[in-house]
Amino acid sequence: MKPTEELKKEHRVIEKVIGALEGMVGRAEISGKLDKADAESAIDFIRTFADKCHHAKEEDRLFPAMEANGFSPEAGPTAMMRHEHEIGRAHVRAMDGAVKGASEGVIKDLKLFVQGALGYGSLLRNHIQKEDNMLYPMAEEALSASDMKKLEAEFEKVEGAMGVGVHHKYHALAENLAEKYAVKKKSHALFHEGCAVCGEGG
């Protein structure tokens, strides 16, 4: 499998957890409390699978390979993708800091979690579209067969560094969260009108 195809497949897994987060937000808005265990599982998935594995493959392997083939590390598409990764990490920090209070029904913290989760989801959905439809095709055009073969081996090292079975564990976690929250692309929209937490609509 081409490295870019592997990254696309990982995007589909990440999208399931984004959908679950949106479902979590919807339920929290109705009940007034966040499910602490599920929120922490989603954050763990994002930090481990999406960031330490998926984004590491991009930032430490794919992007440097593209930059070695003419893409600017300061002003090119790889620079934009790195910047968006950092914005995503800020959203995750906001979510993490609000989980305890949100799970106890503290409105301020619930609002912070909602903002972080929806901000992350919106960012990542757009980010994924850019990578799938623009960045990865650019990489496939610019990189040689030898470059791609080297990336395959490098990606295997990234997964190996996570530990035996860890990659599979997070695939299973994503499936479980998606099933629990009946993932739909616009989960939050079902609950957003007149939302007391977001202070919008109605």
What characteristics describe this protein?
disordered C terminus; 80% helix; 202 residues; elongated
Commentary on this structure:
By secondary structure, this protein is mainly α. It has one domain (3-192): Four Helix Bundle (Hemerythrin (Met), subunit A), CATH 1.20.120. The chain is built from seven helices and no strands. It has helices at residues 3-31, 36-67, 77-103, 107-142, 145-162, 166-180, 189-192. Helix 1 runs antiparallel to helix 2. The protein is elongated and about 55 Å long. The chain starts with a helix and ends in a 10-residue tail after the last helix. Residues 185-202 have low confidence and may be disordered.
> From the 3D coordinates, which CATH architecture would you assign?
Up-down Bundle
Shape: elongated
Gap between N and C termini, in Å? 49 Å
Helix content: over 70%
- Helix/strand-derived category reads mainly alpha
Assembly category:
single chain
Q: Number of DSSP strands?
A: 0
CATH superfamily: nmb1532 protein domain like
